[in-house]
């Protein structure tokens, strides 16, 4: 057994919403891969909660389908082993007596293994029912761990954690009634992406960049999370969310925090959380009178038809300019944009370096989170030849060719870390509240229609106004210019 496998504690993993999109697209395939890699503990039970008449075979078939879609060969012996661990439990999530029944199911499962198991409850359900489900888990005394109280009970909650600042506070109050902070794992799967975890290492382990990571050397930070896909049938969810809540409030502010946080005092989970929180507290949204010029909201052309709501004011694109009010980042504009229906899938962070003595000459460092994961430094060289011409070239580090294309998927990491009780890659309640504090004034301004909704063509880079936003800071988004770790351009000497 590997060290990793031995640190993963025995558990009963109960998934609320086994037939939902998240469970089927992410959690079940992640469990398959963990099983295949032998990273699940010997005593491991999966309970799939559903109110429908789903069978175990239906769930296993979904795994096969998903693997096929991903072009991954399916190992039937792994499916069989997962099948042995899997139980489908039918219950009404609104009925507290069903939670008492569920507790008996867990007690019996545990008794059969003859050992105390951690109890993990994964809420892969619509966020509107997080609060009642958690309250009923509490009422049925499921927050207390195994029957003999020797193992922990843990709650894994998907985003969105709240719908705005006020509801996030309320949810925190409800959840903390029965579960204490150490038991709560707030998932932001971006934190668990391999390339995101590397950001801190890259920053801290390379003095060249570490010593230049401040406003003296950096003139702009740009984060793009573009998705080619639209809303993929998630009409009810997306109409409520919009791009700002869906991506900016959670994933992208966390990315920004990792890029701009001070070095943690040590590499412990608490110290990393404290450093992330420290910078989040310093992030400022645009002032109310600048909201119209420093934020852009957009909707792709066909959206209203797709959601059958001609009056929809939900944004499928958001761009915002933020600032960080601390000594390190004074006056460095931060530009964030995200959208559905864009030209290509690309999540990346670009750091634009200053060259104070050579006005106009800048180096760009791009960290490509996905796809074609890698890091690219743009720099100038002399173009080979008799003339002294300058050319801009890229120095690329590509995960795919230089290290290994194989790394754990974010959800595999989420499951493993929750089982071994490592909370580093999860968001604390304070971080979540700070992220809402930053987004709330923008939501407010947009709800009160202070900004025009710009429409954009699917397959484009979003509204032109977002280009103007970055142009006003003296730059441009570079995403479509860079050829990161994809097919290399031929030499053009
Ligand atoms: C989810 C959002 O949190 O992240 C989705 O709800 C989005 O709308 C997804 O598509 C993007 O995740 P990834 O890992 O594919 O970039």
Briefly characterize the structure.
Helices cover 39% and strands 21% of the residues. The protein is α/β, with parallel strands linked by helices.
Fold and architecture overview:
By secondary structure, this protein is an alpha/beta fold. It is 39% helix and 21% strand. The protein is built from 17 helices and 17 strands. Strands 7, 8, 9, 10, 11, 12, 13, 14, 15 and 17 form a ten-stranded mixed β-sheet that branches. A seven-stranded mixed β-sheet has the order 3-2-1-4-5-6-16, with helices on both faces. β5, α7 (165-178) and β6 form a beta-alpha-beta unit. The longest helix has 26 residues, at 235-260. The chain is globular, with a radius of gyration of 24 Å. 6-O-phosphono-beta-D-glucopyranose binds at residues 159, 227, 246, 347.
Spatial separation of the terminal alpha carbons: 53 Å
In this entry the ligands are: 6-O-phosphono-beta-D-glucopyranose
Main β-sheet, in a few words?
A: 10 strands, mixed
Our Rg estimate from Cα atoms comes to 24 Å
Shape: globular
Number of helices: 17
The chain-level mean pLDDT equals 93
- Low-confidence parts lasting 5 or more residues at pLDDT below 50? 488-493
